[in-house]
Specification:
Residues 77-90 have a biased composition (Basic and acidic residues). The protein has helices at 18-30, 36-46, 50-95, 97-100, 109-119. By secondary structure, it is mainly α.
């Protein structure tokens, strides 16, 4: 028995065996809340008090909620960044009105070549109609 400086009994934290923790975790996976009779049976089978089982479940639910909230926040950030990415992509499409318009058959090849370069990496490899006297290489 431990005593504090005033001679009163000092509360000690219980340490649970690996087997007890395993059984508590398995039970927690199945149900997050235990009713009185279930708690009594579990406590008896693990050699713990009902109060210990009750507090363990309270603490475990708190840990579970924090983890769940963190996962939800991470998922929301990921979704928000994906939304921003898609929004940015649609803004780029608006900037590219020239690219989305049908080509004018009378427009000059230089304009067409610039559009192709702008929208295709290394897109200079395509020459549509070489002018007379020019050779395509």
């Amino acid at each position: 028995i431990l005593l504090d400086k005033d001679g009163k009994r000092k509360h000690t934290r219980p340490t649970f065996s690996g087997q007890q923790i395993f059984a508590l975790e398995k039970t927690f996976e199945q149900t997050k809340y235990l009713a009185g009779p279930e708690r009594a049976r579990l406590a008896y089978s693990l050699g713990m008090t009902e109060s210990q089982v009750k507090v363990w479940f309270q603490n475990r639910r708190t840990k579970w909620r924090k983890k769940h909230a963190a996962e939800m926040a991470t998922a929301k950030k990921k979704q928000d960044s994906e939304t921003e990415r898609l929004k940015g992509a649609s803004e780029n499409e608006e900037e590219d009105d020239d690219y989305n318009k049908p080509l004018d058959p009378n427009s000059d090849d230089e304009k067409i070549t610039q559009l192709l370069k702008k929208h295709k990496p290394g897109g200079s490899g395509l020459l549509l109609h070489p002018h007379e006297g020019e050779t395509s290489a």
